Amino acid sequence: MYVAVKGGERAIENAHAWLAEERRGDRSVVELSVAQIREQLSLAVNRVMAEGSLYDPDLAALAVKQSRGDLIEAIFLIRAYRTTLPRLGASCAVATEAMACDRRISATFKDVPGGQILGPTFDYTHRLLDFKLAAEGETVSAPTREAEPAKVPHVTGFLNREGLIEEAPHDDTPPPDLTREPLEMPAERSLRLQALTRADEGFTLGLAYSTQRGYGRNHAFVGELRIGTVAVEMDIPELGFAVEIGEIILTECETVNQFTGSKTEPPQFTRGYGLVFGQTERKAISMALVDRALRWEELGEDNVGAPAQDAEFVLYHADNIQATGFLEHIKLPHYVDFQSELELVRKLRRDAGAEQIQEAAE
After folding, report:
1. pLDDT band at 242 (very low <50, low <70, confident <90, very high)
2. What is the reported pTM?
C-alpha cells in the first residue's frame, strides 16, 4: 500500500541543521574564510559572478561557501540576492579597447602591437598533481609585474583596415535587459549574447565543441583573447558627462571565422563574440563560437540543422538555474500524480488480462 510521507516544520529545521553541519565538516580543520575563497578559488568565484549576473567577488565567495562548493546553487543564491537590489541607473558601455590586459593572446597573428601577453594560465602546465600544494606553510614568490599594464588595440582592427572582416555593428539603441524581462523569441543578437553570458559553462562548451566537429560549419580562429581590468562609467545628468564609478575584470574573446560570401555579403571573415565577468576564458571562447553559429540567418548561410544553430534550443536550455529548477522539482512530492498513474496502470493491466482470458475462452 502506498501512503503519503508525513513531515513538517520540525523535519525541515532538522534538515537545515544537518546541512549546516555537513557544510562545516570536521571542526578540527580550520574553517574556510570568505577571503580565502575569494583569493584562492577565484575561478569558481568568477563563474558564479558571470552566471549570476552580479559582479561582486565577496558575495560570490560567500555563495560558494554557503553552497558547499555547488556552483549552480551558488549562482542561484547570487541571482536571488540580485533581485533585491535597487536599480539606480545604467552604466555606459565598457571600452574594452582601453583594457589594461593581464593576458592577451592571438592565434591569428604572431606579431601584434602590444605583443602576446601570456598572463596567468594553465595552458603551459603539465597537468600533473603538485603535491607541494598539500604541504602546510607553502609560500609562493610573487612574479614581477609592470606597475600599469600597457593598453593594446584589438587585433581584429588590423583586418578591418583592409576590409577583410565584417564591420562591427554599431547601435546606440538600449538593448533589452534579460535580468528584468523574460526571454522571447525571436531574440536579437544583443539578447542572445546576454543569455550566453549567463549560460551554463558546461552546456555552452558542449555546443561550442559540436560546432568545431562539424555541426554548424563553424571553423573559427581566436582572433584575440584578452583578460584585464576596464573602467565602468555612468552618465550623471546633473553633470552632463560620465563619471568612473569603479573597475571590473573581464574576459573578452573575438573569433575570426571563414565566410565564403552570400547573395548579400562578399567573401570576408566574420566575427563571433564573447564577454564574461572575471577570468573565464573557456566560457568566453565557447560563447563566441556559439554566437557565430547562431548568426547563420543574418549572414545568409544555410541552416544545416545543427543544435548550435537553433536559437530556441540553445537559449531555452542554456540557463542552469531554470534547468536545475525544472529537473529537481521532480524529487518533490508528487503523491497525487503518482496515485493517478498507478491506478491507470492497474486498470490497463486488468483490461489486458481480461482480454487474454476472453481470447483463451474463444
Report:
1. confident
2. 0.85
The reported pLDDT for the residue numbered 147 is 57
Task: Check if the beta carbon of residue 163 is closer than 8 Å to that of residue 243.
Answer: no
CA distances from 31 to 27, 58, 74, 78 (A): 8, 17, 18, 22
pLDDT tens by residue, 303-348: 888 999 999 999 999 998 888 888 888 888 888 888 898 889 898 8
Please give the torsion angle defined by the CA atoms of residues 124, 129, 134 and 138, in that order, rounded to the nearest 10 degrees: -20
Q: Which residue has the cell 601577453?
A: 117
- Kindly tell me if the per-residue pLDDT of 3 is higher than 50: no
Is 264:320 a contact under the CB 8 Å cutoff?
no
Return the ∠ at Cα 202 (arms to 199 and 207), rounded to 5°: 80
State the number of CA atoms in the 13 A half-sphere of 274 facing the CB. 37
Residue 142 corresponds to which cell in the numbers above?
Answer: 610573487
SS3 43: helix
Residues 330 and 166: their CA atoms lie apart, in Å, by 47
List the one residue out of 219, 216, 220 whose CA is nearest residue 303.
216
Task: Give residue 142's identity as a one-letter amino acid code.
Answer: A
- pLDDT score of 146: 61
Query: How many whole angstroms separate alpha carbon 39 and alpha carbon 136?
Result: 17
Angstrom distance (rounded) from CA 62 to CA 264: 51
Determine the angle formed by the axes of helices 42-52 and 189-198, rounding to 10 degrees: 140
The Cα 359–Cα 362 span in angstroms is 5
Tally of residues, the chain: 362
Angstrom distance (rounded) from CA 52 to CA 227: 19
Average pLDDT over residues 141-145: 65
